[in-house]
Structure prediction request, 327 residues.
Amino acid sequence: MSPSPRQEGPDRLYVITSGRSGGVDDTLDAVTLIVAESEPAPGMQSEHAHILRLCTSPLAVVEIAAHLGLPLTVVRILLTDLIDTGRVTARHPTPAPSPAHPLTSPDVLEKVLVALHDL
Amino acid sequence: MHSTTSEPALADGTLDVPDTPLPAGAAQALKLAVVGGFGVGKTTMVRSVSEIRPLTTEETMTSAGASVDDLHGVEAKGTTTVAFDFGRITMDATSVLYLFGAPGQQRFWFLWDRLFSGALGAVVLVDTRRLEDCFYAIDRLEAQGTPFVVAHNDFGEADHPLEDVRAALDLDPAVPLLRCDARDRDSAKRVLIALVEHVRTLVKEGRR
Prediction:
């Protein structure tokens, strides 16, 4: 498959996440919107600080990953750190997306249609 | 843009920031997917309607498939990494629509389960030179009940009658099939509108 955007080796990803692979907030959808609740603090891990600066306006998890140049998997771990310490809040899609309960209320669909017509 | 003097930078020295921020009150994000084979025009279609230049990121999973969150997958043999593009359309002060372009072949389909769960629906983009690239996507979407439309990206050249395309795909008569030029904003927009109208019809019929 295509190479990583920055040709990352696994080593750097391992360092960024302090070796963790679990404990991730499974509710973090690709389009959960993240909002910073604090400024970057001195001494903070640079990826965490970057996320806080990116999210002064709401930004989806997938956009954060693209701007950081990191896989979604890694970004979910970094975001879980920031959520756990209250530095960011997550605005989840409602209801939580699942194949069984897609977001298909007529009101939502009308809103999407209006937005597309206005493009 | 931010000052670069005191900002931690990315590994390559740049500091990438969003050029078009979402409204402060944005709270609800929706997803649409554009699936199809390589080179069929997925990113082009996303670019045609997106308010941001399409961005790229990637998802990984292990071949074991136990958990895509398992970072051990980064080291393991058999790790699958797939890149995908996306764009967005801000709908109003609280809602935003994300458009994902992703390869539709079977070996990439974990993306659908992980990234696109809860998507409103999908556009299957087809190229008549490689129709087989979308067979699996159509099967999968039908099996999981995700609403979709099929768009034949003909780059402005109507080379095949749509009825022939429908027959070649063995497409359910209820599934909308339309022609488009993915490079053209209005054409791409019409495809997305056709998809959402199709979803609305299914909802009204009580099928969703």
